[in-house]
Amino acid sequence: MPYSEPRRGKLAYKFLFWFLLISLAPMGVVGWHLVNISQDVLKEESLRNQESLATGFAETTHNFITNFKTVLHVASRLEGFSSMDPVRQNQHLNRVMQQHPAFLELSVFDLNGLETVRKGRFLGPRPELRNFFDNTVFQVASQKGEYVGDLQRFQGLYPTLTIAVPIVSMAQSRAIKRGVLLGKISLNGLSQMLHQEFPDQGRAESAVVAGDVRDSFLVAHSDPNKVFTRQAGLPDEILKVIMTQSAKKGGGNIGLEDGTSVLGAYAEVKDVGWVVYVQQPVETAYIAATEMRKQIARVFLWVLIITPLLSLAVAGHITQPIRALQKAGEKLKMGEFEELPEITMTNDEIGDLAQSFLQMSDSLKEKTGELLHAKEELTKYGRDLERRVEARTRELKAAQDELIKKERLAAIGQMASVVGHEIRNPLAVINNSIFFIKTKLGKAGGVDPKVERHISIIQSEVKQANSIIDEILTYSRQRELKPELTKLNYFMEDVLSIYPFPEHIQVVKHFDPRDPVVSIDPDEMRQAVRNLIGNGVEVMPQAGTTTVRTEIVDANWVRLDIQDAGPGIPPDVLEKIFTPFYTTKARGTGLGLAVVHKVVNRHRGKVDVDTAPGRGTKFMLYLPMANAAGAPPTGPAQQQQPFGQSPAQLPPTAAQPPGQVSAPPQTAVRYIDPNRGTGA
Fold first, then answer.
1. Region 675-679: what's the mean pLDDT?
2. How confident is the model at residue 666 (pLDDT cuts 50, 70, 90)?
């Protein structure tokens, strides 16, 4: 018969029903009563908070306006300003606009209302001067002492306020009016302050309004997008409430056109008659009541969870031994033999069933252990086989790549040897013939200058062809490296002393006084150094400096720098300079830097390039130093790492034990910032 879940007895359901009734009914009545009481209290508290916010921001708005009035009063009394000197006034106005970005425009008017100085952020270099004698702003400021008003929208979008103060001078202890100072101020700062106080763009918002119901002006809003429009304003139903009140502050429910309600509060801004309005949804005022409902719901939920557990626990001791066997069977089904629950051995049929169950468990545990052990062994053998196959595959690939490289070099070398031999023979004949012709022409008594020039061209081209053949043979030649212990400073002195530098090239040497010793093949390294010096000389045809530097980097590496003062290497060419046969010159094989790269790699070093347009190029050769005993490092355990690789990246034969020889600094060919210099 198929297995089916055991049915609970009716007693468990009775316990569950009565426990729920006793615990949930009183809690529901009390919770409902508390929520109704708290709603009214919270609504009143929310209105008081909103009135406080509105009053506080009304004071902030008043201070905002007063601050700019104070700035204008202070400016009008500055030394030289009250004398109506346009030059001094222009200087003071420039300073005011620099220190207070909210000023969009500043103007000075004389007692006749004629504008003498006008400064503005969006005016031309010579703005038109105006006559304000009949203007209300001028009349009020000159007669009553100051003017605040004339709300407008700059460029039709941004609210601005006009403030004007009289310009007075003190003469014999009495004030004499000399004119009027007028400023047009951007009110965007008020919207920014409101936005910081009410950052959410929901129905909770605040605003500053001026005017009356029919002609209102939206000065600021917590959502700046609602201010910076040509039709900015608050809904009519809100304006009717806040603009028709006689009290300085207040608040209450305000019904909107969409049928919803908000809690709104207002406060009047002192001296200017503006109104600050703050609103929030009614739901926000009832947040605490809503939270109380949620808490009561959570308690109900916990009661619904705990009550069935208590009722089931009362009747559960009867079926506890059977439930223990059921749980033990589920553990066995999942293979958890070590975490079986404790089984009570009663003196009845259930106890006999438990004894048989434990014997079956021991037998399954033994058989499962044998299977798991066999699986682990197979997995281990499989992983070991995969590692061996991967290792052999890497070794075969490395050997194949090395073989292909050697075959290519051998083919290039054989071809270069044959081509060099076949070309050098005709070149030798040409050279001998030129010598013979020059001899004959000399005996004939005179040589035509044109003929002599063409003979020189032929000799130069023959020499160039021999040089190209030498470069190809040098790059393709495969011979055993013959290292010698060499003092790098002495080696470079020898190379520089015999190199044919042109007269326009200046040589600067900076040698490390510690005189590093390296193990190098002198012939190959001399060819590499001469190639770098020759490239530097070629890019300085008029005048220039070749700088040579030796420096010990650390206990294992020394750096040889060869730097020119030429035009530098462009970024698109930099990555290809070590590619064989790649060149940007009109003539040449493109093997000079390829030979340098090959020679340094054969010495287990690295070439780094530092260049910038107009700042020259510096080649840095990193070479391993000789060991402390005075002999070059030998043997697999002491081989140097190729520059720029970690031991994990090297083939097994090239990696060394930790702590023996460090790799040179992890640098790469790079294009430096022209503003940083060459790093000489």
1. 37
2. very low
Which residues are CB-contacts of 591 (< 8 A; sequence separation ≥ 6)? Answer: 471, 472, 474, 475, 580, 581
Residues 547 and 655: beta-carbon distance below 8 Å: no
pLDDT of 564 over the 80 cut: yes
- For residue 83, give the nearest of 178, 13, 9 by alpha carbon: 178
**Residues 127 and 176 occupy one common structural domain:** yes
Which tokens belong to 296? 């009561």
What is residue 332's three-state secondary structure? helix
pLDDT tens digits, 575-611: 767 666 656 665 555 666 777 888 888 888 888 888 8
The phi, psi pair for 53, rounded to 5°, reads -65, -45
Contact status, residue 248 vs residue 240, Cβ threshold 8 Å? no
Contact 53, 206 (CB under 8 A): yes
Classify residue 77 by burial, with Cβ atoms within 10 Å: 0-12, 13-18, 19+.
middle
Fill in the amino acid letter for 437: I
pLDDT, average across residues 27-46: 71
Q: Tell me: the pLDDT tens digits for 118-169?
A: 888 888 778 888 898 888 888 888 888 888 888 888 887 889 999 998 988 7
Strand partners, 176: 169
CA gap 580, 595 in Å, rounded: 8
CA–CA distance, 413 with 44 (Å, rounded to integer): 99
Predicted confidence (pLDDT) at residue 480 exceeds the cutoff of 50: yes
The answer as to whether 17 is a domain residue is no
Residues 473 and 490 occupy one common structural domain: no
Kindly state whether residue 289 falls inside one of the protein's structural domains: no
Q: What is the pLDDT of residue 622?
A: 93
Which tokens go with 168?
Answer: 């007075």
Q: How confident is the model at residue 449 (pLDDT cuts 50, 70, 90)?
A: confident
Structure confidence at residue 231 as a pLDDT band (50, 70, 90): confident
Rounded to an integer, what distance in angstroms lies between the CA atom of residue 289 and that of residue 580?
81
171 and 242, same domain (yes or no): no
**Helix (H), strand (E) at residue 263:** strand 261-268
C-beta separation of 622 from 550 below 8 A: no
The answer to whether the Cα torsion of 36, 40, 41, 43 is positive or negative is: positive
Contact 583, 589 (CB under 8 A): yes
Helix/strand/coil percent split, the chain, to 5:
50, 20, 30
Alpha-carbon gap, residue 151 to 362, rounded angstroms: 93
Q: At what angle do helices 10-76 and 188-197 cross, to 10 degrees?
A: 160
Residue 218: CB atoms within 10 A of its CB come to: 21
Q: CA nearest 196: which of 221, 226, 228, 225?
A: 221
φ, ψ of residue 502 in degrees (nearest 5)? -65, 165
Quick one: residue 585, left, alpha or beta (phi over 0 = left, psi -120 to 50 = alpha)?
beta
Q: By the 8 A CB rule, do 282 and 46 touch?
A: no
Q: Does the pLDDT value for residue 192 go beyond 90?
A: no
Tokens 């051995």: give the residue.
Answer: 345
**Does some domain include residue 292?**
no
pLDDT in tens, 490-507: 898 888 888 888 888 888
Burial, 552: exposed, middle or buried (Cβ in 10 Å; 0-12, 13-18, 19+)?
Answer: middle
In a 3-state reduction of DSSP, which class is residue 11?
Answer: helix
Look at the chain and report how many structural domains it folds into: 4
C-alpha to C-alpha distances, 109 to 164, 192, 367, 667, nearest whole angstrom: 10, 32, 107, 68
Residue range of the domain that includes 88: 77-186
